[in-house]
Amino acid sequence: MVFSLIIPCYNEEKNIKPMHDEIEKTFCSCDFEYEMVFVNDGSYDGTAKEIKNLIKTSSSKILFLDFSRNFGKESAIFAGLEHCHGDFAVIIDGDLQQPPEVALKMLKILMDNPDTDCVTAYQEKRIEGSFTGFLKKTFYKLINKMTEVNFVSDASDFRVMRRNMINAILSMKEGVRFSKGIFAWTGFHTKFIPYTARKRNAGETKWTMSSLFKYAFDGIVSFSTRLLKIPIWLSIMSFIASVSYLIVRLTQGHFSETSLVIFLILLMSSVVLFALSIVSVYLSKTYTESKHRPIYVLRDKDNN
Ligand code: UDP
Ligand code: MG
Fold first, then answer.
1. Domain span at residue 247?
2. Which residue has a Cα nearest atom 22 of ligand 1?
3. Domain identity same for 164 and 198
4. Within this chain, do residues 192 and 264 fall inside the same structural domain, yes or no?
5. Per the structure, how many domains does the chain have?
6. Statement: residue 265 has pLDDT above 80
7. Does 217 reside within a domain?
8. Rounded to two decimals, what is the model's pTM?
9. Do the domain assignments include residue 214?
């Protein structure tokens, strides 16, 4: 059995060695093989140099994937899953916020429960500010209302998966990747365990308020075409407004030329918006099809 630890790294030079040492300490006495897959996501500090040093000195198996530029954590996760050799894999941040011993705990749960395909860690107590926490909660409420997949609030990318789930994730080739949605979409049997995130070992978070908003928006757009239904509702509202306006003016006996112009503007708006809604319906189908998501995902296959 091989276990892969996929570690996306962007400007983590001070964290690479401590991360490696802690993983080694946690897994060295285990009776299975493990590999560390460091994905350098276009860092401009000494991250690549640190990983190359480890390859020379470490007794553990290390795979180094070096991106040509910064493609983002989502791409780093995909690359790690694509190149890893594990029967099981964990996605773990390179800043030591997510303890390797929790990864081992999740792996053990998975090995003891053949009916479970994935174990995900969620933060029992968030260490970020209450405003960011409130925004995240609101985001999960919103995305759960707008999509068919079930997003579990606070569930992170920190998860251990079996090979069947890894392969299903790799079969989803969409370019704008929202891993939390992709994990949920594949639909495997998942167990959730609480963990406490530590403080960053060194360096700074890569998230800014604007990148968080972009990430949230990408997530909603990747898993929902509800926004494309807005013209339909606007068309209905505009039509109701035009008819109501006409009735009110006629009953008041004040139907002037200006009233006619206002009525026609409202009516024409509803016609134009209706035409736009028809385009939206086809656009949403084309958008969904363009992702080429699998038609189904097999959990297992058996015969006698
Ligand atoms: N990361 C990455 N590419 C990026 C941004 C982040 O590979 O463009 C990595 C980063 O090095 C870290 C992990 O993703 O290992 C989580 O990033 P961060 O610590 O900034 O996120 P936070 O813990 O604040 O949510
Ligand atoms: Mg972090």
1. 226-290
2. 205
3. yes
4. no
5. 2
6. yes
7. no
8. 0.92
9. no
Query: What residue type is assigned to position 293 of the chain?
Result: R
- d(CA 106, CA 258) in angstroms, rounded, equals 70
- Phi, psi angles (nearest 5°) of residue 261: -60, -45
The predicted-structure confidence for 188-236, as pLDDT tens digits, reads as follows 999 999 999 999 999 999 989 899 899 999 999 999 999 999 999 999 9
**Contact 13 CB / ligand 1 (< 6 Å):** no
User: Looking at residue 56, which CATH number applies to its domain?
Assistant: 3.90.550.10
Separation in Å, CA 212 to CA 84, 132, 176, 205, 258 = 28, 9, 15, 12, 47
Beta pairing class for 88-91 and 155-162? antiparallel
How many whole angstroms separate alpha carbon 35 and alpha carbon 6? 9
Does the residue 95 lie in any domain? Answer: yes
Tracing tokens 């079930």 back to the chain, one arrives at: 150
Q: Are residues 99 and 53 in the same domain?
A: yes
Give the containing element (helix H, strand E) for 245. helix 230-252
Using the structure block, give the residue that is written with the tokens 């640190």. Answer: 50
* C-alpha distances out from residue 162 to 73, 85, 124, 148, Å: 21, 12, 24, 24
Domain shared by 233 and 192, yes or no: no
Q: Is the CB of 186 under 6 A from ligand 1?
A: no
pLDDT, tens digit (0-9, with 9 covering 90-100), for 152-185: 887 889 999 999 999 999 999 999 999 999 999 9
Q: Cα–Cα distances in Å, from 87 out to 27, 98, 268?
A: 16, 21, 60
Q: Please indicate whether residue 233, judged by its CB atom, sits closer than 6 Å to ligand 1.
A: no
40 alpha carbon – ligand 2 mean position (Å): 15
- Going by C-alpha positions, the residue among 275, 276, 269 that lies closest to residue 243 is 269
- Output the CA 60–ligand 2 centroid distance in Å: 24
Three-point CA angle 191, 124, 108, nearest 5°: 35
Q: Rounded to whole angstroms, how far apart are CA atoms 170 and 81?
A: 7
- Domain membership of residue 248 (yes or no) is yes
pLDDT in the model for residue 152: 86
110, 230: one domain: no
